[in-house]
Design brief:
The protein has nine helices and 15 strands. It is an alpha/beta fold and 342 residues long. The protein folds into two domains: 153 residues, Quinone Oxidoreductase, Chain A, domain 1 (Alpha-Beta Complex), CATH 3.90.180.10; 142 residues, NAD(P)-binding Rossmann-like Domain (Rossmann fold). The strands form three sheets. Strands 3, 4, 5, 6, 7, 14 and 15 form a seven-stranded mixed sheet that branches. The chain has a six-stranded parallel sheet with strand order 10-9-8-11-12-13, sandwiched between helices. A two-stranded antiparallel ribbon has the order 1-2. α1 crosses α9, α3 crosses α4 and α3 crosses α8. The two termini are 19 Å apart.
Length: 342
């Protein structure tokens, strides 16, 4: 058995300053309930990662750099501590580890054990679908509801796909050209432009029921006002984006009483899920159970991450991918980094 293994870790030391730090992991020093693993694939979370790469304002007061980036990691276990029971050497696991070649983490941080016959590249993207899945849960969505998704980046696409899976009539608002082709196999999704004629036709489109839940994946103040205006009275807005991030102060009142008070709206921020391990009778939906479910949907073909995977590249091309996403290349959503070559 190897006593140590080399590791490469991506780190942002400042805006546009992406470096690879190298080190060594002492496998003999693994604690009883820890596992060591080597990354096979990692997937980019475009909004979070590129915001950090380009130096967008942080979401809360904090020291931003240096920092690691990424949280979609599929790896193979190469060693386990003496008291680890959930996995063994050779097992495939999903974790929230960043873009790195190898790592050690507590057994409790393993999200899902993945079967060897799964499409590993697709499964690596599971958490990109979780954000929309959790938003639908938080919005209390049930079949029969009308749901609008504002924005059609990676997060908007995955949210719309999950809404379709929920059996919801789903309207995606985006001015991107040809975005409708992505959803060709999802029959409950309709793509609409963000303009006034469409907004005025929502009553007819929804058979007078209106938009029950709006899920905003955009940072634009214009899109925020669009969401406030389109949602029905006593409707709900779930914010997955960060209204105003990187923009000047708005010319509108983002909590204008003609929307918030007159419509009696419910506005909820969403992005965090329950991370503790709890019995289903105590907390039904936890991050681990949610991820198990999403991996099942991917492996059974109910949802297909191929629509968001724009390319697969070698691990050392991460900055190239960041530049493509920052440049807003049409039709470019996310990428898979390949770390391990069999």
């Amino acid at each position: 058995m190897m006593s140590s293994i080399n590791t490469k870790i991506y780190e942002l030391t400042g805006p546009y300053q992406l470096v690879v730090k190298e080190g060594e992991i002492d496998l003999a020093g693994i604690k009883d309930r820890e596992v060591a693993a080597e990354t096979i694939y990692s997937a980019l979370s475009p909004g979070t990662e590129v915001a950090a790469y380009t130096g967008m304002p942080p979401l809360r007061p904090m020291k931003v750099y240096p920092r690691v980036n990424g949280y979609c990691n599929l790896a193979r276990v190469i060693a386990t501590g003496s008291k680890v029971t959930a996995v063994e050497k050779g097992d495939l696991i999903l974790t929230f580890q960043s873009h790195r070649s190898t790592f050690v983490c507590p057994e409790a941080e393993i999200l899902v054990k993945i079967p060897g016959d799964a499409d590993l590249k697709k499964v690596t993207t599971a958490f990109l679908f979780h954000l929309g899945y959790n938003a639908l849960l938080e919005g209390g969505c049930i079949p029969g509801m009308n749901v609008a998704v504002v924005g059609a980046g990676t997060l908007g696409i995955t949210t719309a796909v999950m809404a379709n899976t929920f059996g919801l009539r789903t309207f995606v608002f985006s001015n991107q050209k040809n975005i409708g082709k992505i959803f060709s196999s999802y029959k409950l999704i309709q793509v609409l432009p963000k303009d006034e004629p469409v907004k005025k036709s929502l009553d007819a489109l929804t058979q007078a029921a209106g938009i029950d839940v709006v899920i905003s994946t955009s940072n634009s103040w214009h899109d925020w006002e669009y969401a406030l205006d389109m949602v029905r009275k006593r409707g709900t807005i779930i914010t997955l984006g960060f209204p105003g991030r990187g923009e000047a102060p708005p010319v509108i009142n983002p909590l204008d009483s003609k929307y918030l008070y007159d419509k009696q709206l419910c506005i909820k921020a969403c992005g965090l899920a329950v991370t503790i391990d709890a019995a289903p009778e105590d907390i039904r939906f936890t991050i681990k159970r949610n991820m198990q479910y999403l991996c099942h949907l991917i492996m059974s073909g109910v949802i297909d991450p191929a629509i968001i995977i724009s390319e697969e590249v070698n691990w050392d091309k991460l900055e190239d991918v960041y530049k493509k996403i920052a440049a807003r290349l049409p039709g470019y959503y996310t990428a898979i980094l390949k770390w391990k070559y069999e």
